[in-house]
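Today's session is about reading a structure prediction critically. Students often jump straight to the picture, but the first step is always the sequence itself: look for stretches that repeat, for charged clusters, for runs of hydrophobic residues. Only then move on to the predicted structure, which in these notes is written as discrete structure tokens rather than atom positions. Here is the chain we will use throughout the hour.
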Amino acid sequence: MGIKIAEQIEIIKRMVNEKFKIYLGEGLIADFQCKFNPPATIEEINQLEKDHKIAIPPDYKEFLLITNGMYLMDIMKFHSLNDIEMILDTGIYMQGVYPIAYINGDYIVINSDDIVCRQYIYAGGHDTVDEFICLSASFETFLDRLTSTNCNIYWDWYHSKIFYSFSGNYPDTKPTRYTSPVIYTKASLVVPNPPDNK
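Below is the predicted structure for this chain, in token form.
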């Protein structure tokens, strides 16, 4: 297990309080701005699960009970329950799949079918809207990796067949670089022809 959700959110808050700057690539550096929404209620979470026949894993529920979504700069947004519901109402995602974030052009989704094995986070939609890669992570692991890499889109590193291992507690740990023995599997998680809801 990595760092708990509440601790990870505190890490992000400390980054903001310290006027943290983030490297965006190609020589661009931006100030790290963050907004945390008020917490969701367990009743609101249960209602979303019931209405849309999805399963929300315990670690993601914990996140929503602390902050019902958060905004990190212009390139990173963790959706609120209302955002998730509006997107699900479009019918674009397959049953049991729902979006939780939009990060630097990639959509982050949870596949309810994979919750039991705790490898249910997928990223995709950057190059092609119907291709997602399994990040082999729970929400807790995903958030831990995201904060450990200063909120960079670490899953792009896998495309280069390079894997970064993070052991110990952030922020004292430096990543260990080695060739990845893991090749992410790709999956189509959207409906080929979503319904027109006009």
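Discussion point for the tutorial: Residues 5-187 form a domain with the SMI1/KNR4-like fold (CATH 3.40.1580.10).
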